[in-house]
Amino acid sequence: MPVSFPIEKVIGKARSGRLLTPHGEVETPVFMPVGTQASVKGVPQETLEELGAQIILGNTYHLYLRPGIDTVRRMGGLHGFMAWPGAILTDSGGFQVFSLNELRKVTEEGVTFRSHLDGSSHFFSPESAMEAQIGLGADIIMAFDECTEYPADRERVRTSMELTLRWAERSKKYFEEHKQEVPWKDSRQPSAVSPQRKQVPHRASSPVRNEGLALWRHTCGNIRQRCLINAAVAMASMKKMSRDGTRNPVLPRNLLLNSSRWIFASKFSRPIRQARAWGV
Fold first, then answer.
1. How far is the C-alpha of 229 from the C-alpha of 249, rounded, in Å?
2. Which of 277, 278, 252 is nearest to 263 (CA)?
């Protein structure tokens, strides 16, 4: 079954609904625990289930490097690999690749980068990022995008945005041609890819029709500087979107505020990291 998102109630710009995925329903608005390497660090599986977690996130870049996409695929995808019965969302690996700074080279075709583990050379393209996420068996996958550094001048940001839109078209094309190759044991299929909306004042919209839209509310750069513009950019993006689509901000500052802006899901790694390192 493809992913669908029936909206059950709307009050102003706030909305609630159910995200129907091949691996169960997700009541929204929802916060997604981050399981970077197929595990939410420091949280036992039974605890996640007791807490009512319905969807978790896996990181394509880290899983690609270790244990490898083929290993995960042979075990039935992430659901089998980590024995997780619920829904899974994977990111494209774009943020991690672009955070490597001097260890990467960007071209129209994709990004050549060196592993942070052993320095080995690798290449990600929109097509290979889709192939990896399909191999991981995620219910919801992300388009491969260029994560723009900050600060950056207007021309640099526009160039990055336009490259991301071209990559979104390639991501979508590959997904539609190969989505049936998920490692599940039946005929279910993942959702259509969600391209990223860039953090930049612009009039362009993605020409690719997808089932959802991911909002990257920050760029690669000084966290204090980028936090100053997060709220304004999120609001500007919301004004350009319809009410019926799903959307997922990657950096939630306030779950209730996000839901009031038609946003259905939020994810962030800091809550688990802080609880693990410093206690609650």
1. 14
2. 252
For the full predicted model, state whether its pTM sits above 0.85. no
Q: Which string of DSSP letters, residue by residue, matches 15-40?
A: EEEEEEETTEEEEESEEEPB-TTSS-
Helices (H), 179-210: none
* Tens-place pLDDT, residues 7-52: 898 888 778 889 899 999 999 888 888 888 999 988 888 899 898 9
C-alpha–C-alpha distance, residues 89 and 87, integer Å: 7
52's torsion region: left (phi>0), alpha (psi -120 to 50) or beta? Answer: left
Q: Which residues pair with 24 in a beta bridge?
A: 21
61 token code pair = 């870049």
- The string of DSSP codes covering 38-58 is SS-TT--HHHHHHTT--EEEE
Calpha distance 142→93 (Å, rounded):
9
